[in-house]
Amino acid sequence: MWRARFALAILTWCLAVAGAAAQTAPVPQMTFIPALLSGTAKPVNLQAALWRPAGDGPFPLVILNHGTASDQSQTRRMVPDYYAASRWFVSQGYAVVTPLRRGYGKSDGPLSEVAIVGAPSCSSPDYYGAGRQSARDLLAVIDYMRKQPYVDPSRIILAGHSAGGWATLAALGSNPPVIGAIVFAPGRGSDARDSVCRPEFLIASARNFGQDVHVPMIWFSSENDHFFGPKLARAMFDAFSAKHPGDDTFVPVPAFGSDGHAFIGYADGLPLWTPAVQSFLARLATH
After folding, report:
1. Domain limits at 241?
2. Per-residue pLDDT tens digits for 161-172
3. Total number of domains constituting the chain
C-alpha cells in the first residue's frame, strides 16, 4: 500500500511541476504584420508568431526568418516555426518575431521569391534577385516592429535559416537599422542532396550582398549539411565577409542527425549554437 501511495505522491508532484512549467513557458501570439514594402502604397499582411518575455519592455528583438519548402506546392501549408530557438532567445530577454514572407502560409501573396530563373535546367539561377525580393519583406518587418512600444528599436537583430538566412544576408546589404545578424545554413538553389545549381553564382551573390555591410554577423554551418555543405558555406562566408573580415564569425557545427541543415529547428540542436550566440549577444551589448 505504501508503495502505491508513494508512487501516487511522486506522480502528483511530477504533474504539478509539469503544470507549473507549462504555465511559465513562453507561448507565441499568432498575428499578422501589416508590412509596407518599398515602392508600394498598401501594406501586405504577413503571418507571424510573436514571442515576448514577461513585462512591458522595451525588449531587444530578434527577427527570425524561415527557409523554403522543398516541395513548392507545400508553401501555403507552412506555419511560423522555430519554437525551440524562439524560447531560448526569450530566456535571454529578447522578444522574437518569426514572420512568413509573401506567398507562405497565410501571408498575402503571390510567392515573390524566384530562385531559379532557368528551371528546370538550373542554368541561370537569379540568387541575387531572389535575395533582394525576400529582403523587401524583412525590411518592412523591421520598419513595423521597431515602432512597437515593447521593442527597443536600437537593439534589433536579424536572423534566418536556409533561404531565410539568405534573405538576411540580402537585407544586410541595404544597411537596415539592426545591430547584428545570425545566419544558420544560409543559401538557395539546392536541387538535390549535396547538389546546388551553379554554386559559383551563389558565391558571387554573397559577395555582392556583403559589399557595404557595417554590422557584425555570425554564420553557422553543419558538418553534414546536405543542402549547402561546409566547403560551399565557407566559400560563401569568405565572399560575403571579404570587405569586413574582422566583423564576422564562421562557426562549424558538428554533424546533426542524418542532415545537419535543419539543426536550428530542434531542441536537441540548441547546444550546437547557443553558446556561440550567447557570446555574440554579449559582444553586441558592448557596442
Report:
1. 29-285
2. 999 999 999 999
3. 1
Is 70 domain-assigned? yes
259-283 average pLDDT score = 97
**Residue 11, in any domain of the structure:** no
pLDDT over threshold 80, residue 13 = no
The Cβ of residue 206 has, within 10 Å, a number of other Cβ atoms equal to: 27
Residue 23 belongs to some domain of the structure = no
Instruction: Judge if pTM exceeds 0.70.
Output: yes
**In CATH, what number is assigned to the domain containing residue 268?**
3.40.50.1820
CA–CA separation, 26 and 160 (whole Å): 21
**Taking Cα atoms as reference points, which of 79, 103, 68, 74 lies closest to residue 191?**
68
CA distance 188 to 165: 9
Burial class (CB in 10 A: 0-12, 13-18, 19+), 201: middle
CA 1 to chain centre: 54
